[in-house]
Amino acid sequence: MMKKYDKILKEGLYIILFMVTSLFAQNPIVPNVGLNDPHIHIFNDTAYVYASHDKSINNKKFIMEDWWVWSSPDLVNWTKRSVLNPKDTT
Hints:
By secondary structure, the chain is an alpha+beta fold. It is built from one helix and four strands. Strands 1-2-3-4 form a four-stranded antiparallel β-sheet, with no helix packed on it. A hairpin with a 2-residue loop joins strand 1 and strand 2.
């Protein structure tokens, strides 16, 4: 019986934690830019983020035409380095 209550308590705590973190969620990598599905790689002490992004905030569905490449030496200050077109990856 106690295990049942422990499970309910644990699930309740997870739900509360999810709700609280959702309220304060932000884009932690590059604020106010809207990077989606970021992938990070480290080369020579510099972090590079490869991320998709929506073409426009006015779209009714997600349109991704290219990827943005950002770099940072300290994971705080980010610089947009280039745009990678999917046609250039084949």
